[in-house]
Amino acid sequence: MSLDGTYDAGNIFAKILRGEAPSVRVFEDEHVFAFMDVFPQSKGHTLVIPKHSTARNLLEEAPETLGPLMAGVQRVAKAVRAALNPDGIMISQFNGAPAGQTVYHLHFHIIPRWEGTPLGRHAEGMADVEELKALAAQISAKIS
Ligand code: AMP
Fold first, then answer.
1. Residue 52 is part of which domain span?
2. I need a surface site. Which of 5, 23, 74, 85 has the fewest CB within 10 A?
3. Can you list the pairs that 84-93 forms with residues at least 24 positions away whose Cβ atoms lie under 8 Å?
4. Global confidence as pTM
5. Domain assignment present for 6
6. Ligand 1: centre distance to CA 128 (Å)
């Protein structure tokens, strides 16, 4: 999928938002939904998505949506830090398949990093759901 195209309401994140597909929820408010990435690149890899959006990528998003969305990303990133005490936090967002995008509902990755621990491969290796639930509870408890 290139940068051009139409939003597919059947994408997995849209299904998660409608409650048609499962997710391990971390946080939600009026604007954003945050949940654990099931193919995590590190312990605590969390995704943040806009709830009311049909933007496939950042370029398509309404500017007025970006403020609340980025505030949500920052809020969850702070909770990830408080919960897991990483040495660094990578925040990434891909636009179009050549850039690494695989799901076409705008989303931000929050990926905690530790000194000496290499980054896992992107979208590979499914996590244990019970472990994800435990991490989500830890992160969720630190949302402020
Ligand atoms: P991207 O490649 O930037 O489009 O990222 C999509 C991300 O969604 C990848 O990191 C996947 O591991 C993750 N992912 C795919 N399906 C699910 C799902 N059902 N629940 C949680 N994360 C998912």
1. 12-141
2. 85
3. 84/43, 84/44, 84/112, 84/135, 84/138, 84/139, 86/42, 86/44, 86/112, 86/113, 86/114, 87/113, 87/114, 87/115, 88/112, 88/113, 88/114, 89/113, 90/119, 93/58
4. 0.97
5. no
6. 15
